[in-house]
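Human: I would love a firmer grasp of how sequence relates to backbone shape in proteins. Take your time, and here it is.
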Amino acid sequence: MSAHMLTILSEPSADASVPQLDLTGKQCRAVEVQLQHLTSENNALQTQLGQSHVLMTGQEAQLQCRESDTTDMERQLQHLTSKKEALEIQLSQNHAHIAGQQAQLPDRDTFSASMKDDLDEQAEFIASLYT
């Protein structure tokens, strides 16, 4: 391959802007060595480029997974927020219901007096049965 390329390079060109090469055997060998070195370097860079592409593709996939996870978390957060709001409404309703029930109950002193009166009446009734 190198000999073919050197032959092409050493052939005269009709274009005057292309420099004409007149290489000795030693110079041809130096050009071949340099060409091999550049080819090896190019192959190494191609490999690095491929590895970088694979790495970038993996990172893009991770990013997409994280974006998907973020979307899922946002949905969960919305669901939990809605659930919290519903529970707060239910709690408020329960407090109102309890307050309504407590309003219907007599206060403690009134209840105690009523119970005492009932017990006194029952005691009088029982006493009347024995007299």
Remarks:
- DSSP finds three helices and no strands in the chain.
- The CA atoms of residues 77 and 113 lie 54 Å apart.
- The first helix runs from residue 2 to 10.
- Residues 1-9 have pLDDT under 50 and may be disordered.
